[in-house]
Amino acid sequence: MASGVIFDIKEMSVNDGPGIRTTVFFKGCPLRCRWCHNPEGLSFEPEIKESGLPCLGCGLCRQPCGHEDCRPFGRCLHICPQGRLKQVGERVEASALADRIKRQADFLLANGGVTLSGGEPLAQPDFLIELERSLKPLHLALETSGQAPLPVFQAACALADLVMIDIKHMDPGQHKRWTGADNRRILANIAWLKARDIPFIVRVPLIPGVNDSQENLAATAAFLADVPALRHVELLPYNTLAGSKYASVGRTYDPGFDETRPPNIDCTPFAARGICCQVL
Ligand code: SF4
Ligand code: SF4
Fold first, then answer.
1. How far, in Å, is the centroid of ligand 1 from the Cα of 63?
2. Is there a contact between 43 and 27 (Cβ–Cβ < 8 Å)?
3. Does the pTM exceed 0.85?
């Protein structure tokens, strides 16, 4: 029986695939995109999130307590007079999580399905595969960066009804500079996907001055030309609120690009290749 760490379950989601869906967010990601807006999804471990009212500096949360759930953090989650502290991330068994989601099976079968997102779901492969198998026959969408070994990618995609995958940059050096890893594994995984009949959507986060040049968009479109299983491409303009949650999990947001410059939002390189392109 496989278990894994998740940091959220969002019900009634309308932005994570077709219809109305339940989205499970896996905790932990091997990439470090400078524009990531989900800092609580980066670490693979449960952690403390601080938010809400200002800290009084009283130190009560640093004093020893007897709560079992506080032990891994060395801080008390329950004593803060400002209610600032909560655990983000929990370890769950795949079968128990599937049972929980399938309580709404009739609704999900009729209206949408389940999306497995993150963080990076492929970074917890045993948990992901068991969860996918347990969730059948619900419609399953896999939302991934593609940064995973090919056998893991193949196994997870083969169980999915729809794959939503990012292309962040076509240049390996630029990809490494802005995400921490080059793009060879991701492009190899997409190359495998292109030759299958698993429907997929490519998402391009448009980051000003990073990947929004005509040259990079044209190279992305060329890589995706003439692929029957590709449903469409989605351009996601940079979210200027991306850095807002970093301090709450003890991280610093340091994008390294000009956040104030609007990204170049241009579907024409895709249209020129006959690829449907949407701006979200
Ligand atoms: S208990 Fe709350 S207010 Fe006091 S130091 Fe800890 S976080 Fe700050
Ligand atoms: S792949 Fe997604 S979750 Fe991982 S660092 Fe990049 S934006 Fe964040």
1. 10
2. yes
3. yes
